[in-house]
Amino acid sequence: MQIPVRLGPRSYSIVVEPGGLAKLGDHLRTLGLGSRTMVVSDAAIRARYGVVVAESLRTAGFAVTEVDIPAGEDAKTLDVAARCWDAFVEAGLDRTSTIVALGGGAVGDLAGFAAATYMRGMNFVQVPTTVLAQVDASIGGKTAIDHPRAKNLVGAFHQPRLVLVDPLTAITLPERDFRSGLAEIVKHGIVLDAAYFEDLERSTAPLLAREPGTLERIIGGSCRLKASVIERDPEEQSELRFALNYGHTIGHALEAATAYGRWTHGEAVSLGIVAEAHLARRIGLAGGDTVERQERLLAAVGLPTRATDVDATAVLDATRRDKKARDGKIPFVLAPAIGSFRVVYDVRSDDVRAALAVLAP
Amino acid sequence: MQIPVRLGPRSYSIVVEPGGLAKLGDHLRTLGLGSRTMVVSDAAIRARYGVVVAESLRTAGFAVTEVDIPAGEDAKTLDVAARCWDAFVEAGLDRTSTIVALGGGAVGDLAGFAAATYMRGMNFVQVPTTVLAQVDASIGGKTAIDHPRAKNLVGAFHQPRLVLVDPLTAITLPERDFRSGLAEIVKHGIVLDAAYFEDLERSTAPLLAREPGTLERIIGGSCRLKASVIERDPEEQSELRFALNYGHTIGHALEAATAYGRWTHGEAVSLGIVAEAHLARRIGLAGGDTVERQERLLAAVGLPTRATDVDATAVLDATRRDKKARDGKIPFVLAPAIGSFRVVYDVRSDDVRAALAVLAP
């Protein structure tokens, strides 16, 4: 499956291809990129996929260098970015060279930020190996590192030249990571496509069994939905791209209020979706059935819909540092019905508190 | 004088206005920017212009915060950028807030990089107070910090929302800084506009006397020339923008080979122009008269055209780390005649050595 992302001179494709890792070099050669590449990854991912990727690049005629970064969010620091820049200089990379981010969302965010800012922007290719990164983080050109005060506070928009998704990598993910990625998939259905949401409702069993055909269809479908938003709003200039933030205003705040230690990102987004669904009902925007279908699907794919001991004040506080705030106002994306969304700016704190209270089991 | 820079949704104006510093707030209000601003500057510039700028912003209804950074190139480090991000968070800035860079090129580069990467890009306004920054660094959206191995190695393209040039600030510049800025002005004439070059040849006396009308006309003219290039090639995608690099391939290398301690940037560019002019003659691209007119004008405005003890090997080495290198090849911008340029990729090292030898007095 080849999904075009039409962005004028910055256009690129998302290639969803079982076994695609071994084809990376061929795809890069087709794009006519410069002769030097550097694969950024963490040690565990490199142990699993590093050889096949490097072989594929070398066979296609590229020089390959590698840099290892810490696993997970620990990679997203200024120090690690600086280490990447050092490695890029050392390897003699220039703007025609290509950084390949091989791994989960954090690898893509960090490597993308380093590529976006090295010589003011060089070629960058995403090879996401988690569901979360495949359907969300790797698409759309958002790159970032963290700041002690807020995640992803420092970053850049830098569109990749290619996103290569091998859905078979999802098969070996730990159960919790796999399910975490499904939260973004469910989100795409809720705000963007009722038919896709219904497919998810029907497909929970083969999806949870990680049946290859189902993985390819569902992951590819989610990539396509995200791509359609990116095409129309590549740099969050309009409200359209806010749609992708559904469940995230409260989800991010739940993560921040618990120092990112309690839930995975997907689990927090699942809880955020539940709270924001109830918020929509509370302010009269959505009916009860719309709320229940969301909760039911999240629960069916094994994501949390309830949580004990949520500190509403801390969560509210964290929402105020949202990057989408516009001169102090926080936009909430809400779903009036499955397959649609609306951005609401004047949500009262009391209503957010009431929505958070729903999370108590 | 209002010079439009037409870049679609990223369009902006360069306003060249004697006494313009006091009008900054009015201009920002016209643009409809968010209510919060932060003025980034160094202590000496702030002592001279800080009050008038802050007053202008406050009078126009903006909240004003300030952050001081080191003077000159010392500002362009990752540590200083991190301090800016901290200050932005502390002041509660979001994407609608505006960073105002008040000062020379280094302030603009650093503040621009911090603004480009904070929340993946916030509003940014350039208020350049040196000739060098007014006619060159502040226009075109290049932002950067330095790397131990190369200047401006890390950065981003981030177009400002406004460039406000007050040519009267040139009157109080130290003599060496003022003349240094003239190198970029001469460069614009050589590669882009023969009539402008002739105006410079006729105007050296009032220009060096810093006659206000001449300053406004010459500085404004140079801004217009640079803007015309930026409009057609905002992110160095084609050879067009390379034109602005005339004198810089060797100029940058001269600076790098002497650890940035011997010449100001403008002085190095002046020497770079002389060497590249001779290089063009040597490879049969330009006639002797074209070379002599360039040297004569540079000398007439008090810029160096000769230098003792140039280490040709070190300079050649430094050219190889040029950000404009494309997969190992270094593009030289050469001037076949006044008012025109050509990009040449296959320049031989021997010819560069011979051109450098011309610099010996």
Q: Can you give a write-up of this model?
A:
- Two copies of one chain form a homodimer.
- Chain A is of the alpha/beta class.
- Chain A is 47% helix and 16% strand.
- A seven-stranded mixed β-sheet of chain A has the order 1-2-9-6-5-3-4, with helices on both faces.
- In chain A, strand 3 (36-41), helix 2 (43-59) and strand 4 form a beta-alpha-beta unit.
- The interface between A and B is large, with 38 and 39 residues.
Strand order of the largest sheet of chain A: 1-2-9-6-5-3-4
Distance, first to last CA of chain A = 42 Å
CATH-defined superfamily of the largest domain in chain A: Dehydroquinate synthase-like - alpha domain
> So how many helices of chain A?
13
Radius of gyration of chain A: 20 Å
Identify the CATH architecture of the largest domain in chain A.
Up-down Bundle
- What's the helical proportion of residues of chain A? 40-55%
User: From the helix content, strand content and strand pairing of chain A, which structural class follows?
Assistant: alpha/beta
Shape of chain A: globular
Average predicted local confidence, pLDDT of chain A: 95
Low-confidence stretches of chain A: none
SSE order and pairing:
The structure is a homodimer of 361-residue chains.
Chain A: E1 2-5, E2 12-16, H1 24-31, E3 36-41, H2 43-59, E4 63-68, H3 78-90, E5 98-103, H4 105-117, E6 123-128, H5 131-137, E7 142-147, E8 150-157, E9 162-165, H6 175-192, H7 194-208, H8 212-232, H9 248-257, H10 265-282, H11 288-300, H12 312-319, E10 332-334, E11 342-344, H13 349-357
Parallel strand pairs in A: 2-9, 3-4, 3-5, 5-6, 6-9
Antiparallel strand pairs in A: 1-2, 7-8, 10-11
Helix pairs in contact in A: 1-2, 3-4, 4-5, 5-6, 5-8, 6-7, 6-8, 6-10, 7-8, 9-10, 9-12, 10-11, 10-13
